[in-house]
Amino acid sequence: MTIIEKLDNNERLSYEDAIKLYDLDLFTLASYANKIREEKHGKKTYFNINRHINPTNICKDVCQFCAYSASRKNPKPYTLKHEEILDIVENSSKNGIKEVHIVSAHNPETGLEWYLDIFRKIKEKYPHIHVKALTAAEIHFLAEEYNLSYEDIISKMIESGVDSMPGGGAEIFDEKVRKKICGGKVTSQQWLDIHKLWHKEGKQSNATMLFGHVETREHRIDHMLRLRDLQDETGGFNAFIPLVYQKENNFLKVKDFLTGQEILKTMSIARIILDNIPHIKAYWVTSTVKLALVAQEFGANDLDGTIEKESIQSAAGAASAHGMQLTEFVDLIKNSGFNPVERDSIYNEIKAW
Ligand code: V47
Q1: Minimum CA distance residue for ligand 1 atom 29
Q2: Which residue's CA is the nearest one to ligand 1's atom 24?
Q3: What is the per-residue pLDDT for 311?
Q4: pLDDT tens string 29-86
Q5: Ligand 1 atom nearest to CA at 65
Q6: Which positions of the chain have pLDDT values less than 70?
Q7: What are phi and psi of 77, to 5 degrees?
Q8: Which of 49, 173, 208 to mutate to test the pocket of ligand 1 (most atoms within 8 A of CB)?
Q9: Assign residue 186 a region: left if phi > 0, alpha if psi is -120 to 50, beta otherwise?
Q10: How far apart are CA 321 and CA 97, in angstroms?
């Protein structure tokens, strides 16, 4: 059977099939991806009103693609006090945020409680705000640093009020590429194991993929299929988020950058092969806002949120340092022909704008 026949029959695609998808032209891929998007979500595009907080940039690990952590490329180490974080949440709560997305570097100097106690403090004062915090990479770091199991860290997260886990730290699962770009931090299998344990607690998470650096198309397909396999077991992933690599201020020397066509093809392929993950997020921070809007017709049905302040990708060149204004965000989605729907962090609908 040809790949087109398999697509027409809605067959689940194998690794060999999925690789062939990249040989199809962009608009053929888009028509299949968009059909799936429309069957699942119609013309709805989800977003949330959120605040990203990155409490420290001091990191034990050195990822070659990272421009955020304090290093000789970015010699400005900081660690926020809990009072400073609470001030940020106080201000953001006045702007109507429904989620704080808290991700830190791997700081061996603060102690475990510094990482966890802030969630308790936020929950106590703002019980209505969803706390999305601690990537699998941070959980692995904390477990190693404090000689605890992943289960221990996860139960401490739950006790402290963490509601869901973000999808960061996945990068690319292929072990050879991983060694090159972020050897030393959480391995691919450990990343998957941690999400599996989190899902086992009845909790939800997201999954990212960093692409457009030294990986190949085959590595991307392998990455997505490892996620599809875990999702078959647990059903705990809400969204898949392909993160487009940003090139400034880091240690990775990448000559050729992705074309818009390659980014859109990858979005469409993700929508086609990840048949068990409900949402594909075009993270406007890394794709640019304009391409994220276009991606709505290539399988993506979520644009993340207003963010307010973004430090990780903006350190590497993305135009996202100050987030997006809510009214502009909503207007852009409407003007591109889609229906903006505000959601909470686990995709309950809050308001059709
Ligand atoms: O894992 C670091 C990435 C991620 C660069 O779960 C870079 O809803 C591009 O995971 N170019 C953290 N990307 C951000 C993240 C995320 C973002 C938005 C929503 C969610 C979610 C998760 O940022 C890291 C890493 O892959 N990153 N450096 C760079 N130069």
Answers
A1: 246
A2: 168
A3: 87
A4: 999 999 999 999 999 999 999 999 999 999 999 999 999 999 767 779 999 999 999 9
A5: 30
A6: 72
A7: -65, 145
A8: 208
A9: beta
A10: 17
| pTM confidence score | 0.97
Beta strands in 237-293 (DSSP E): 237-244, 279-280
- Chain-centre distance for alpha carbon 322: 18
Contact between 100 and 131 under an 8 Å Cβ cutoff? The reply is yes
Residue nearest to atom 7 of ligand 1 (CA): 313
Q: Do residues 251 and 214 make contact, with C-beta atoms less than 8 angstroms apart?
A: no
165 lines ligand 1 (CB under 6 A): no
Q: What Å distances lie between residue 93 and 49, 56, 114, 147, 225, CA to CA? A: 10, 21, 22, 36, 38
Residues 13 and 270: beta-carbon distance below 8 Å = no
Atom of ligand 1 nearest to the CA of 168: 10
CB 298 within 8 Å of CB 30: yes
pLDDT at 319: 87
Instruction: Decide the pairing of beta strands 99-102 and 50-53.
Output: parallel
Domains of the chain: 3-352 (3.20.20.70)
234 φ, ψ (degrees, to nearest 5): -110, -35
Distance CA 82, CA 331 (A): 35
CA distances from 226 to 39, 80, 191, 234, 338 (A): 24, 36, 11, 13, 31
Ligand 1 centroid–CA 286 distance in Å is: 8
Is the shortest distance between the CB of 143 and ligand 1 below 6 Å? no
